[in-house]
Prior knowledge:
- This protein has helices at about 10-20, 40-50, 70-75, 85-95, 130-140, 160-170, 175-185, 195-205, 220-240; strands spanning about 60, 80-85, 100-105, 115-125, 145-155, 210-215, 240-245.
- By secondary structure, the chain is of the alpha/beta class.
- The chain has a single domain, classed as Vaccinia Virus protein VP39 (Rossmann fold), CATH 3.40.50.
- The chain has a seven-stranded mixed β-sheet with strand order 3-2-1-4-5-7-6, with helices on both faces.
- Helix 1 runs antiparallel to helix 7 and helix 5 (about 130-140) packs across helix 8.
- The protein is globular and about 45 Å long.
Amino acid sequence: MNISPNHNRDLRDDIRDYWSDRAATFDQDPGHRIAEGAELSAWEDLFRRHLGPAEGRRLLDLASGTGEIARLTRGLGFHVTGLDWSERMLDRARSKLPDVTFLQADAERTMLPDACMDVIVTRHLVWTLVDPQAAFAEWHRVLVPGGRILVVDGDFVNGSWLTRLLAGLRAPAPAPSRQRHQEILRRVHFSGGARAELVTDLLAGAGFAGLRIDRRLGRIHRAQAAQLGWRRSLMRNIEHRYAISATKPAEG
C-alpha cells in the first residue's frame, strides 16, 4: 500500500534523514558552527539578555545538532541536556561534549516528564516544524512554572529583491541536496516563511506569556562576517532573523 507523501510520520523521517546526511560536514558551515572569540561572545550576550544568569538551571537544547548551543550554554553555567532526532548529529555532539546528556527524540514529542526543565532553547528549529502548535504545547508541558524559552530562528523563504538577487549569485548547492531541502520546505507548516509574528501568536496560543521579539542580532552577524564572505554576510543582515523569548506563567 502506498503512503501519501504528506503523511506527518513520513515527513518527520525525511527531515531526520536530511539532517543526518549533513551531520559529517555540518560544523564546516560558519552559519552552524560558533567560532571562538567574538562570535561566541556575541551569542553568549544574546542568551544572557533573554535568560539571565544560569545558576545551574536545567536547560533543554532542542534540535541540538552537533552540540554547538549545548557547548555555549554549558559554558554559561546551565545544566544542559541536548535532544535531537538524528543519531549521526548526536554522535558528533557526544564526541564534543562527553559530559553532557544527549537524547534521541523528536522535538515535537520529547517523551520527557512534565515540568522537568527550567529553560528550553532552540536555534533554527521552528521553521522545520511539522506541527508547531503541538510542539509549543509540548515545550510548555516540559517547562516548570516560571520557566523560560528562547527561540532563535528566521524566515528563510521570503526576502527583499536584494536578498533574492544575492541568493541567485551564490554558487548552487549540489542538486540532490537542494531538491531535498526544497521538498521538505514545501511540506512543513511554515512553508510560507516562519515570520516572528506568526511564531509568537502560536506560542501565546500554547500558553506562553511575556513574549518578546528581539531582532538585535547584528553583533552575531558582524562576528560571522569574516567566515561567511561579503555576500552571505550582507544577506544575514537583511534577512528576517530574530530571537523570541517567553515565559511559562507561574502557577496561581
